[in-house]
Amino acid sequence: MELQAVLMAAGGGSRMPDLTYNTPKPMLPVGNKPLMWYPLNLLERVGFEEVIVITTKEVHKMMSTDPKMKDVKMKLDVVCIQEDGDMGTADALRHIQQKIKTDVLVVSCDLITDVALHEVVDLFRAHNATLAMLMSKAHEFTDTVPGQKGKKKTAEQRDFVGVDQSGKRLLFMANEADLEDGLSIRKSIMRKHPRMHIKTGLEDAHLYCLKKAVVDFLADNKSISSIRGELVPYLVRKQFSKTTNSPKIKDDAEDQNQKTIDELLISSRDEPLLQLAQERSCWNDHRGDMSEAYHGGKLRCYVHIIDQGLCYRVNTLAAYIEANRLAPKLFEEPAVHPSAVISERCQMGSDSIIGALCQVADKTSIKRSTIGNSTTVKEKVKVTNSIIMHGVTIEEGCNIQGCVICSNAVIGRGADLKYCLVGSGQQIEPEGEGHYHKHTKNIVRFIPLIFFLLTAIVNTNDLLTLSY
Amino acid sequence: TKEEKQRLRKEKKHQKKIKEKKDDKEEKPVGAASQPPTQPSQKGDLAPAPAPVPVPASETPALADKPAKSKADLKAERRARQESERASKQGKKGDVGQPVPTSKPKAPPSELQPVVKRLPEHVQVDNPDVLKKLAKKLERQQIPLRSDYGYKVSLFSHLHQYSRKAPLTQQLGIPSTVIHPAIVRLGLQYSQGIVAGSNARSVALLHAFKQVIRDYTTPPNEELSRDLVNKLKPYISFLNQCRPLSASMGNAIKYIKKEISNIPSQCKEEEAKSKLLSCIECYINEKIILAAKAIAKYSIEKISDGDVILVYGCSSLVNHILCEAFEKKRKFRVIVVDSRPRLEGREALRRLVQRGISCTYVLISAVSYILPEVSKVFLGAHALLANGYVMSRVGTSQIALVAKAFNVPVLVCCETYKFCERVQTDSFVSNELDDPDELIVTRKGKTQLEHWQEVPSLGLLNLVYDVTPPDFVDLVITDLGMIPCTSVPVVLRVKNVDQ
């Protein structure tokens, strides 16, 4: 066995609480398929036969009932963990350490991509790397996000990623949040790699190939709890640390009794033969100094950066909407589910998707939208650019534009919603109007919205609906 | 001898039998020529020809095509013959010593004559039938076929030309189940050039085989000696697709196959595996490490103080010799000659300068300028052919030629495990074509040859090996001693007697 796949599906979706209020993030519908179906499909296409899925009990229950999940032919080994959110991704890996027998490929449940996975794994194989990860050029989401008036410039913490000249070897990784005054690069790195390209416009796809020694190392070092936040920067830093000087304790206080990652890596069999082969080979990964290939370092981190093609992490509302628009293009599936009942006089654009068991009545117009399973759309409804999840009822005469309507909501007759976000199970009054609103149960959220309301054009009806 | 003649007669009868069987069954005509190679190979180590060994790799799956009845028959026949031959071998070793070596070279040519058209080293990419057979064989072994890339110069259209940007792993599933992960890693390293150089490739291959043997378990109702060899065949095809096998790798594979098939059937699995692992260790130690020491010892006698030594490219053996000579306090300086597109001389330069040897670096275009200063030329070899020709990195024959013109002695250093029974007098018949895009260079942001594929009259040729005639080589330093180039067949014969 070469690689074992691990899918991390216990994340909370902390950046889109309105959507994940009722539905956990891994089961959010994107193009009428649950979000975690996409990475599973990627693994299946590439040839994996078994995946270890780390998730919560709630998601596990929903997984077993979802019809799309039954399409997944791989054997899913589900490990349930507590929902309290204290467990980081590295903690989860530590939890399943007994199951890990070989190198591991960790995928996050919110990754939608069509990347050729062999590029990442080839880096991992060819250079005998400790870590190989995938990054993509960050996308600018241009569509208006429902629930937000105007373009909110989120001060997202940037990632600084340093790669060498070939663009493959990962030399430096830091998040803006961790850097106080400025970016400082150690001399040892500069001595070995005098030319470094530092990129800031990259987004981490949270897809990692890790050696088994890393999982063993995690079992010993309980202080590391997140792969992305702590383990990856640690490994990248450790590439250049002197292995002989153990008293040099930098940031993490390492217990002297714990095995360092170097010791774990070196304790592989046939090391002398590999050394011999490397010595006799006339290949070097860098030029210009007197050191051998890889500067004699055993710990190597590689990154594959894609600039074309689809690679999204669905962790914000904007990403979710963008993904809904683009995900259907990944697969050659009929836009309209065969079990949906659609009347003839309905105008449906080619970009739209209708889910199973839907009922769409006459004189409706559905353009660039996704309609979930078991939704009912009555007459004279105009749905544009929206995402409608499962079990929603839209009464006659509604005009829905650029909205996200969560499961089991009811939109009353004649409602006019523009760029709104309707939470699960909500009811919009007939003749209700909303512009850039979020209709959710959380009243506290409305306090900042009141300022938006003052500037927006509001009908008296609005104030009534807001009281819900 | 009588025994040889009897054996020949038996085989001819067997050939006729199989031909009849085949005509009856209306099979895909494998050809009578394919039958003889199966027999010498199954004899094991008596037949010295390397050619038949890879051919059975294609033949045994071909035989697997036949309906089960004849396959079982053939298998039984083959096994019976093998047992009888093994018994006769034991007897033979007792009495006849001398006549056997002299008769052996006579026997194989007669068996090989019908096979001469289909020697596997003679790759025939422009022959669609051969390509079809290769595709079928790979399909049976569940290995993806790597497609050729780009326009091939007509003189070399019979060779494969692959692109580095299209690795074979694209078509493999990611947790590779058909091919052992160590072999996939090795194939990737070969195709990307991370493991390059004859010795390095052999050592890496044997290391990967060690891992394969460790992870191997004998399936029930199978013998380790037969099953393991069959398991290795798809791996070897895979590695061949990633990068054509070198002569040293071929010899190493032959040795391992021989060792595996010589394991007695009553041996327990653990014992057999540990025996094989120790054999591999032994082979590497003897043929590579100790051979390098021996060659260094001989070469140091040839290096005198005040010498100016010219080396070409990066040969691990020549670098080792020079470093050893420097340790022994010989005073010399080195001129490293390098050539595009690989520019391997930079690595040789780094290793020599790191030790403290004073070096000069030139490109091959300056070799006639620098030769008046040179007192000796040391060259490494990829393989030594049976007619005394030296197969080495492209550019070596040019250096040997110019050195001959300047009357500078040319010494080739080569371990005996790189000696191969092939015969070649030119660099066209059998060579390796590397990715033509490697020749493209970007200077100051401009890539002139970027769209070379669109120019109809332009072809890029990136040759890897060339062949140097023995007239230009003054001495070959091997672990058996210092021999002239024409003595290579003698060494081969001696090696076969030992085996």
UniProtKB/TrEMBL annotation, chain A:
One of its GO terms (molecular function) is translation initiation factor activity. Residues 5-137 form the Nucleotidyl transferase domain. The keyword Kinase does not apply. One of its GO terms (cellular component) is eukaryotic translation initiation factor 2B complex. Transmembrane segments: none annotated. It is found in: Cytoplasm, Cytosol. Coiled coil: none annotated. InterPro entries: eIF2B_gamma, LbH_EIF2B3/5, NTP_transferase_dom, Nucleotide-diphossugar_trans. Its main location: cytoplasm. SUPFAM superfamilies: Nucleotide-diphospho-sugar transferases. The keyword Protein biosynthesis applies. Keywords: Cytoplasm, Initiation factor, Protein biosynthesis. Residues 339-431 form the EIF2B subunit epsilon/gamma LbH domain. GO terms for biological process: cytoplasmic translational initiation; glial cell differentiation; myelination. It comes from the Eukaryota. Pfam families: LbH_EIF2B (PF25084), NTP_transferase (PF00483). Component of the translation initiation factor 2B (eIF2B) complex which is a heterodecamer of two sets of five different subunits: alpha, beta, gamma, delta and epsilon. Subunits alpha, beta and delta comprise a regulatory subcomplex and subunits epsilon and gamma comprise a catalytic subcomplex. Within the complex, the hexameric regulatory complex resides at the center, with the two heterodimeric catalytic subcomplexes bound on opposite sides. Acts as a component of the translation initiation factor 2B (eIF2B) complex, which catalyzes the exchange of GDP for GTP on the eukaryotic initiation factor 2 (eIF2) complex gamma subunit. Its guanine nucleotide exchange factor activity is repressed when bound to eIF2 complex phosphorylated on the alpha subunit, thereby limiting the amount of methionyl-initiator methionine tRNA available to the ribosome and consequently global translation is repressed. Belongs to the eIF-2B gamma/epsilon subunits family. This is Translation initiation factor eIF2B subunit gamma. It comes from Cyclopterus lumpus.
TrEMBL record, chain B:
Keywords: Cytoplasm, Initiation factor, Protein biosynthesis. InterPro entries: IF-2B-related, IF_2B-like_C, NagB/RpiA_transferase-like. It comes from the Eukaryota. It holds the Pfam family IF-2B. Residues 20-29, 66-95 have a biased composition (Basic and acidic residues). GO terms for molecular function: guanyl-nucleotide exchange factor activity; translation initiation factor activity. It is found in: Cytoplasm, Cytosol. The keyword DNA-binding does not apply. GO terms for cellular component: cytosol; eukaryotic translation initiation factor 2B complex. Residues 7-19 have a biased composition (Basic residues). Residues 1-112 are annotated as: Disordered. GO terms for biological process: animal organ development; central nervous system development. Belongs to the eIF-2B alpha/beta/delta subunits family. PANTHER family: TRANSLATION INITIATION FACTOR EIF-2B (PTHR10233), TRANSLATION INITIATION FACTOR EIF-2B SUBUNIT DELTA (PTHR10233:SF14). Acts as a component of the translation initiation factor 2B (eIF2B) complex, which catalyzes the exchange of GDP for GTP on eukaryotic initiation factor 2 (eIF2) gamma subunit. Its guanine nucleotide exchange factor activity is repressed when bound to eIF2 complex phosphorylated on the alpha subunit, thereby limiting the amount of methionyl-initiator methionine tRNA available to the ribosome and consequently global translation is repressed. Component of the translation initiation factor 2B (eIF2B) complex which is a heterodecamer of two sets of five different subunits: alpha, beta, gamma, delta and epsilon. Subunits alpha, beta and delta comprise a regulatory subcomplex and subunits epsilon and gamma comprise a catalytic subcomplex. Within the complex, the hexameric regulatory complex resides at the center, with the two heterodimeric catalytic subcomplexes bound on opposite sides. This is Translation initiation factor eIF2B subunit delta. It comes from Cyclopterus lumpus (Lumpsucker). The gene is eif2b4.
